[in-house]
Amino acid sequence: MTEETPGFDEKPDVPSDAAPEDAAQAESADKAGSAPAGDVTDVALQAQLDQVRTALNERTADLQRLQAEYQNYRRRVERDRVTVKEIAAANLLSELLPTLDDVGRAREHGELVGGFKSVAESLETVVAKLGLQQFGKEGEPFDPTIHEALMHSYAPDVTETTCVAILQPGYRIGERTIRPARVAVAEPQPGAQSAKSDDEVKGAKASDEESGGPDEG
Asked: Which of 130, 162, 183 delimits the end of a domain?
């Protein structure tokens, strides 16, 4: 029989100094095996983040578009509301224009007195609050968009087609004309411009003769 030496354990087949190297290799192998798994996780998270950002941008664009549409809708509703209000007021006030004409004629003839005067002034105040404006004055240039010529004549003292008489005043609400002003117009006398030009030329010549003629260089 083989005698065992007391106090000594049996030595392993692998040297003890090789154990640290094996541990280092095993740790390196573990790290090498776990690195690709971490990269895959990062890529997946980045892809999810990109999807979330894309969805957020799309929702933001949708919200901005809805806000713009809502603002346009509000402006359109407000514009329609004002238009409907003006049309309703214009329809009402159009029915009152003959009465206002009677009030104006009575005022011109000095018949607007007493209680009739108070009623007429109250009526004019109410229609003014509704936005009714009167227009048309003698001496203003004729504008076919707001004037209706009922009479025509020539005058030597005008240089353009001019309203020389207001037969019936015009009325408007805002930019909407309810009734054009009915006027009598006068145009410059035919040949008046050429005669005026001749007079100006003669006057210039007379002035040159009195001053001894034009200066000579």
From this structure: 130
